[in-house]
Design goal:
InterPro entries: Mur_ligase_C (IPR004101), Mur_ligase_C_dom_sf (IPR036615), MurCDEF_pg_biosynth (IPR050061). The protein is an alpha/beta fold and about 130 residues long. The chain contains six helices and five strands, in the order E-H-E-H-H-E-H-E-H-E-H.
């Protein structure tokens, strides 16, 4: 299991490419916590394409930080866009739901949590 601060599409892509190179035979599952509505909206297609590199990706609700919610963008929007790139991507609406889904993975699966929010807490819970 890894946790990565990646919260920009380029960083997500590089992290997943490096993981695939280091662990070519492992299933790679990502739990991604988008940071900021404005960034997610601006880079929607780039996020979608990067997340589609994982064998499976789960998108958490957007971490708003200093922003007000934007009804035009959500974790579901990101997941829908990633599926248009052929990705196996789904949106989940709580960290508990994401944690429970990740706990179903086989021991040989590489799980990566990534984002600027507190998604790392899921990795901590799974590691316990």
């Amino acid at each position: 299991m890894y946790d990565d601060y990646a919260h920009h599409p380029t960083a997500i892509r590089k992290t997943l490419e490096a993981a695939r190179e280091k662990f070519p035979h492992k299933k790679i599952v990502v739990a991604f916590h988008p940071h900021l509505y404005s960034r997610t909206k601006s880079f929607l297609n780039e996020f979608a394409e990067a997340l589609s590199l994982a064998d499976h990706a789960i998108v958490a609700p957007i971490y708003a930080a200093r922003e007000e919610p934007d009804p035009e963008i959500s974790n579901h929007t990101v997941a829908d866009a990633a599926r248009s790139f052929g990705g196996n991507v789904e949106a989940m609406d709580s960290f508990d739901e994401i944690r429970d889904r990740l706990l179903l993975e086989d021991e040989g699966t590489l799980i990566i949590t990534m984002g600027a929010g507190d998604i790392y807490k899921i990795a901590e819970q799974i590691a316990d």
